[in-house]
Amino acid sequence: MMEPTGEMTPEQIGAIEHSVRIGSLLVIDHPEIAELYRDGMSYPGIAESLDVKREYSILSDEVARKSIYHAITGHAGGFSTEPYDGLIQNLDELATLEHEH
Fold it and tell me: Rounded to the nearest 5 degrees, what angle is found at the Cα of 63, between the Cα atoms of 26 and 73?
């Protein structure tokens, strides 16, 4: 749960940083994620099919799901992490796919 002030806990910040870092690895290790997403597979479905929890020592389903999200969309920087491009860089295509999902 979010604190009433809207501040994140250190655990939440750590989970975000972890998912962003793993997303950057997934861009390199699994470029096929873009096609899986285009073919209609969900973030959790892709995470499960690639067994990212085991391969990247992820403990939570949420971090695994967010890692797939970041691999697809990229990351603009922040949260002590470097920016990187996602596997699907066309914003119109991303919006269409998100709507379809």
Answer: 50
